[in-house]
């Protein structure tokens, strides 16, 4: 088969390259900070946003997995929530399915990451497009020794890093 296309013919494309990169003022940054009773301040290094058929899961982690300093704050929410204030009580149905704080602990001589399950809490949620912002959250839990913890802070996470024209 012979190609009769002129060598100078333009290529049709639906892709339009941007003349400039995304505007930094429009970048969306994911971040989470918190205080935890009797622990160092929590400043997330990574935030994971995932969804299932009925839930949205957010996991904010601080420090390197495998280290003694590694910690995670987890939120499991009903998919499709609108902005508003939500309350949580363990064992009761609601739009917040689970809250937890994970930290290193030694239990029975074994070194483990212990899941401190949320007992009760509140969160102020703002949803704008693909961005979830917890302007304030607070929940209570018990650590591996049964000591009461309060986890309080704020979090912002987006499923996109920027909006490009």
Automatic annotation (TrEMBL):
What domain of life does the native source organism fall in? Bacteria
Region named Disordered:
1-29
Know the name of this protein?
Uncharacterized protein
């Amino acid at each position: 088969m012979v190609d009769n296309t002129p060598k100078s013919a333009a290529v049709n494309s639906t892709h339009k390259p941007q003349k400039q990169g995304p505007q930094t003022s429009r970048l969306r940054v994911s971040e989470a900070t918190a205080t935890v009773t009797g622990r160092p301040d929590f400043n997330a290094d990574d935030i994971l946003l995932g969804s299932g058929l009925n839930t949205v899961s957010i996991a904010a982690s601080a420090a390197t997995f495998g280290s003694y300093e590694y910690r995670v704050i987890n939120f499991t929410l009903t998919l499709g929530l609108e902005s508003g204030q939500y309350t949580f009580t363990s064992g009761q149905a609601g739009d917040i399915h689970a809250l937890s704080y994970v930290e290193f602990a030694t239990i029975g001589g074994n070194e483990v990451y212990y899941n401190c399950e949320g007992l009760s809490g509140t969160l102020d949620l703002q949803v704008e497009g693909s961005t979830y912002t917890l302007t304030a959250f607070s929940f209570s839990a018990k650590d591996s020794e049964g000591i009461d913890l309060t986890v309080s802070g704020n979090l912002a996470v987006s499923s996109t890093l920027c909006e490009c024209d």
